[in-house]
């Protein structure tokens, strides 16, 4: 993400220190993560110390300080999904992507996370990719679905 | 500023509105133990060691003296069996994190706290925030801050700022009750700016 783009986002929020979290969220959603240069720019323009930005950026799970893949895979590990075979889905995804929960592959294609309940237990096992929900997953379907992402 | 009169451990204490219970007590020579309090810093209320019992309009409650404001007619008890028991527990919990902290061991002695009561979980930092707050409020350099939250909360130096500001300052070092701060600094220094 270049400096101009970061500046545009900051301008959109009138460079107000009180909009810090909004600014960070905008950068996060556009860039998938918060690079250090971007944070330094935000710190400068909003006049908020970097240490404070770092505290906030590490406090909320919505932010990432390390590169994230283009697609975020969330596998539900809640009780209902678990008994319906979520662990099998998880190991299939690990096998296909080569990454563990919390990790991102080297091509920055996928990031993998496990979550504790997506709120649609009747659809278990549930996988969510980029906000799209896939229910009643099988290992074969998981493979199909993952292949459809570029 | 109007004058208020409160009672601390049976003693009548004159204080000014806006003072905390801790300030009022200290002005009258009554000691309340503290860990995260510092005269130059805003009240923080992190360690809870300064816990006291106050009675207001007939109701008793436990509050932390470094944050709770003194009020006219307030009745404060700074030591009792109950308060000592709570402080002992706090010290024992903190000792699980920083078993060799000199300050904590001194307090342990005073309150009969058992250093081995809880399984050791040596994270060393006890999150008193003295380093972070001193750097921000007094020095306004923001070279060290907190990161993460809950059980993963830690202090962390910003290497670029630390490299520039810390070598000639280090005023926060003696404030740390556990020496973890020095360790964190040396680690940052050796990783990020070893030759300077
Ligand atoms: S490093 Fe020391 S001074 Fe800083 S928060 Fe931890 S215990 Fe307190
Ligand atoms: S001194 Fe009051 S909470 Fe730490």
How would you characterize this protein structure?
The complex is a heterodimer of chains A (150) and B (196). With 150 residues, chain A is of the alpha+beta class. Chain A folds into two domains: 3-59, no CATH class; 71-147, Glutaredoxin (3-Layer(aba) Sandwich), CATH 3.40.30.10. Chain A has seven helices and four strands. Chain A has a four-stranded mixed beta sheet, covered by helices on one side. In chain A, β3 (127-129) and β4 form a beta hairpin. Chain A is elongated. The model of chain A has no long low-confidence stretch (mean pLDDT 94). Chain B is α+β, with helices and mostly antiparallel strands. Chain B is globular and about 60 Å long. Chain B has a five-stranded mixed beta sheet, sandwiched between helices. Chain B contains six helices and seven strands; from the N terminus they run ββαβββαααββαα. Iron/sulfur cluster is lined by residues 125-131, 155, 175-178, 180-181 of chain B. Iron/sulfur cluster binds next to α4 and α6 of chain B.
Short description:
The complex is a heterodimer of chains A (150) and B (196). In chain A, strand 3 (127-129) and strand 4 form a beta hairpin.
Please give the share of residues in helix of chain A. 40-55%
Give, in spatial order, the strands making up the sheet with the most strands of chain B: 2-1-5-3-4
Instruction: Tell me, rounded to a whole number, the average pLDDT of chain B.
Output: 95
**Biggest sheet descriptor of chain B:** 5 strands, mixed
Q: Low-confidence spans of chain B: pLDDT under 50, at least 5 residues?
A: none
| Shape, per Cα inertia axes of chain B | globular
Based on the structure, what is the oligomeric state of the protein chains?
Answer: heterodimer
Indicate the structural class of chain B. alpha+beta
Secondary structure elements and their pairing?
The complex is a heterodimer of chains A (150) and B (196).
Chain A: H1 3-12, H2 20-31, H3 36-46, H4 50-59, E1 71-76, H5 79-83, H6 86-97, E2 110-115, E3 127-129, E4 132-134, H7 139-147
Parallel strand pairs in A: 1-2
Antiparallel strand pairs in A: 1-3, 3-4
Chain B: E1 3-8, E2 11-16, H1 21-27, E3 51-56, E4 59-64, E5 75-77, H2 81-97, H3 102-111, H4 130-138, E6 144-147, E7 154-157, H5 159-165, H6 180-192
Parallel strand pairs in B: 1-5
Antiparallel strand pairs in B: 1-2, 3-4, 3-5, 6-7
The structure holds iron/sulfur cluster and FE2/S2 (inorganic) cluster.
């Amino acid at each position: 993400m270049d400096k101009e783009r970061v500046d545009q986002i900051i301008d959109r929020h009138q460079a107000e220190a009180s909009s810090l979290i909004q600014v960070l969220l905008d950068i996060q959603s556009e860039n998938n993560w918060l690079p250090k240069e971007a944070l330094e720019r935000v710190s400068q323009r909003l006049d908020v110390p970097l240490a404070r930005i770092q505290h906030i950026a590490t406090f909320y799970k919505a932010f990432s300080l390390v590169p994230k893949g283009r697609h975020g895979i969330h596998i539900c590990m809640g009780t209902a999904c678990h008994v319906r075979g979520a662990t099998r889905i998880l190991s299939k995804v690990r096998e296909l992507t080569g990454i563990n929960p919390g990790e991102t592959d080297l091509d920055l294609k996928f990031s993998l996370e496990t979550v504790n309940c997506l709120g649609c237990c009747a659809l278990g096992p549930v996988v969510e990719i980029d906000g799209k929900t896939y229910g009643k997953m099988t290992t074969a379907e998981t493979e199909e679905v993952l292949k459809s992402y570029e | 500023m109007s004058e208020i009169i409160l009672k601390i451990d049976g003693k009548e204490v004159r204080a000014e509105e806006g003072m905390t219970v801790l300030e009022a007590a200290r002005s009258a020579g009554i000691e309340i133990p503290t860990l995260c309090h510092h005269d130059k810093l805003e009240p923080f209320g992190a360690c809870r060691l300064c816990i006291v019992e106050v009675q207001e309009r007939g109701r008793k409650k436990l509050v932390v003296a470094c944050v709770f404001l003194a009020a006219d007619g307030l009745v404060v008890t700074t030591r009792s069996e109950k308060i000592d028991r709570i402080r002992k527990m706090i010290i024992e919990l903190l000792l699980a994190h920083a078993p060799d902290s000199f300050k904590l061991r001194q307090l342990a002695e005073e309150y009969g706290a058992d250093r081995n009561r809880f399984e050791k979980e040596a994270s060393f930092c006890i999150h008193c925030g003295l380093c972070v707050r001193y750097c921000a409020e007094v020095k306004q350099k923001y070279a060290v801050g907190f990161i993460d939250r809950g059980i993963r909360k830690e202090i962390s130096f910003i290497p670029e700022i630390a490299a520039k500001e810390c070598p000639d300052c280090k005023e926060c070092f003696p404030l740390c009750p556990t020496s973890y701060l020095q360790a964190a600094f040396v680690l940052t220094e050796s990783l990020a700016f070893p030759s300077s």
